Amino acid sequence: MSTTDGNDGPGGTAGPGGGAGPKNRIRVDQQLIADLVPAGARVLDVGCGDGALLYHLSHFKGADARGIEINRTRVAACLNQGLSVIQGDAEVELRDYPTGSFDCVVLSQTIQAMGDPKGTLETLLRIGNRAVVSITNGGYWRNRVQLALGGRVPFRENPGERWYDTTNIHPCTIRDFVGLVDEMGINIEQCFAVSASGAYREVYPSSAAANLFAVQAVFVLGWRSAPDEAG
Amino acid sequence: MASGTGLQGTGGGTIDRRTLPGEFVTLAKEAPLDLDSGARLGPINVAYTTHGTLNTDKSNAILICHALTGDQFVCGTHPITKRPGWWDTTVGPGKPLDTDRYFLICPNLLGGCMGTTGPSETNPATGKPWGLDFPVITIGDMVNVQKLLVDHLGIGQLFSVIGGSMGGMQALDWAVRFPERVFSVMPIASALRTSAQNIAHHEVGRQAVMADPDWCGGRYQEEGKRPHRGLAVARMGAHITYLSESALTRKFGRSLQGRDRVTYGFEADFQVESYLRHQGITFVDRFDANSYLYITRAMDYFDLVEEHGGVATDIFAGTNVRFGVISFTSDWMFPTAENREIVKALNGVGANVSFVEIETDQGHDSFLMDIADYHRVIRGFLEGAAELRGAAGP
Questions:
Q1: Does domain A24-223 have CATH number 3.40.50.720?
Q2: In sequence order, which residues have a C-beta less than 8 Å from that of residue B112 and are 6 or more positions away?
């Protein structure tokens, strides 16, 4: 996998060729993920939304890109762009895929909404040889300030949400996430910290500074030993 | 509209198939076709229509498979009913199945009654109508005949095979029998196998036909009769399964038909009764009772899972075909759960499949309707398949 550490990615959206139309406009964290996916790979984007990353992967990286999305309207938007997407609940649908069916499985900003994040990670690394997982960092300093001084649970990513209606039922910090994957015997091949400005750089997963200053983190994960065929 | 207590339709005249518009070809002339039942059938006539222009590398052909009571008159004005063809919403210039871009082929299926060989045609061995001497056919037999037609048209690989309901079963069967002959398939409101509930509905329809004394043990043509009452009842029952409870309530509710109060009798007091009687009576003008028996039976026997040793993931093992599966929220005949079984079998072998459930209250018949989300998905799927096929695409 290629690295793009030290790249001060532009804020907002990034698109190839300068002429970024609405179809190929992707978020900075998606651009980072796209850069981490090898050209021509078989990729599954779990929770693919309106298909921005899928479109980018299939049109600019020659990937065989598939998606799963629970929201009917977003699935229709994906199919409307000619993308291969299945409407369904990822935690149910993922069970059907055979072991090793993808080079890479992407889970972008979704793990905090999963009922069983641990089981999901296991499944991602069963059906994919690698997983690229991005998380919202609950340890970001503004979140800490909001809880410490404001006295309220922070929901920076979705400002309208309250503690009782959020779908993000399993929020975590970079340290929390690293703790889980260590416990599971998963190897962190790469870890990127994304700042509030959209800049990103490769960091040590154990970095206390990253856990304080990163808004998001992107991990490239694989099993420590060769993937167990029995799954 | 029907009045009184019965189904006093015209009963329909006998249709002279030779006067119908469209194309006509005789296939399986040299060697008869081996049917799934073990019987052999040939030669086989196929009536079909085409729309649009086949391009020079023959890469823009789409086969449209019609459902139980459909026919080859997919768009434009139907020559018998004088109403729009069954998929006129979807097929035509600038429509999702765009005749400016694709070459569309729609054959009347084996066992049908619009010119393709079926029980109402003449048995060459006896010179009389086949009737119940016609061999029992399967979805696979229908697909084998369609493949002979595609061979006849000189098309190596179809760009897509598309169909709703039983048409979706044929599309799936194409991907199983002739995976190298199809680039993509689009089964809509369909299933890997026919459910017990659908077999049950079919059986009620068949019993209605056979209970009509004018059915004459299947020999009604020779007797100069038509079991139009039985067939109309079968159609009325089936038509309910094509709609939904909420659509019936929205369209009719408990509204009365041309009267202020109920009559305390058995006339069509309610609009919904009058509507169903109309559906039954008009149906018999264009459909053959024995065809109805044979085609519902073919659906009953459809079971791709059983054909593959009960292992659903074996059905599409190793397939390179691209699949687009669509279901509708209010379809209780082929509910989303059954369409998801197709998706599950495909995911199990890592096949390229898209799936969406369209939200609508129009029931199973949604697949015939002009629904914006649905049409966008058909268009998008074909667009995506064309991009994937690259230079060889339409």
A1: no
A2: B71, B118, B291, B295
